[in-house]
Write a structure and sequence with these properties.
- By secondary structure, this protein is an all-alpha fold.
- The chain has a single domain, classed as Cytochrome Bc1 Complex, Chain D, domain 2.
- The chain is 56% helix and 0% strand.
- Helix 2 packs across helix 6.
- The radius of gyration is 15 Å and the shape is globular.
- It starts with a helix and ends in a 6-residue tail after the last helix.
- 19% of the residues are buried.
């Protein structure tokens, strides 16, 4: 892991440790983050790039500084699980829930709603049974709904 990436991950790790009441050591948090980063690299980075900036020229949206906003509108939470790349991932429901939570906290923690509830394996398993076939119209509608949200 490059030192730049390592530095960017230290702050989120510290937050995780505080949120969990210090119940995990830095080494354990680092290992968990490294595991999630590896899952991201293998399953998501090809389209969303290493820092979540997306690839707009190819229609791949940015995660970085934005994806958490979807949790502020009806249907947005479900959308993040039902997009084909997520819903059809080979990851288990538990691992996919962990990855989604990691991505939201890593790339868009400032945009998460104050009452953010992490995804669970049960929720992910239920939602991914009905992947979206037509992603673009759903995304357009969610973005329209986001225009009315005051705290973006």
């Amino acid at each position: 892991m490059s030192s730049n990436v390592s530095r960017r991950l230290r702050a989120p790790l510290a937050v995780v440790a505080v949120v969990l009441g210090g119940s995990i050591s830095y080494g354990e948090a680092h290992s968990a983050t490294s595991s999630m980063q590896a899952a991201y690299m293998l399953g998501c980075q090809g389209c969303h790039l290493d820092d979540g900036r997306g690839f707009p020229q190819r229609g791949v949206p940015a995660l970085n500084g934005f994806v958490g906003n979807f949790l502020k509108v009806p249907g947005g939470r479900e959308y993040l699980v039902r997009v084909p790349g997520v819903a059809q991932s080979e990851l288990s429901d538990e691992r996919l829930a962990d990855l989604l939570n990691w991505m939201l906290r890593t790339f868009s923690s400032a945009q998460l709603p104050a009452d953010f509830t992490p995804y669970t394996a049960l929720e992910v398993g239920r939602l991914r049974k009905s992947p979206l076939v037509e992603v673009a119209p759903v995304r357009v509608e969610l973005l329209r709904r986001l225009e009315t949200v005051a705290d973006l």
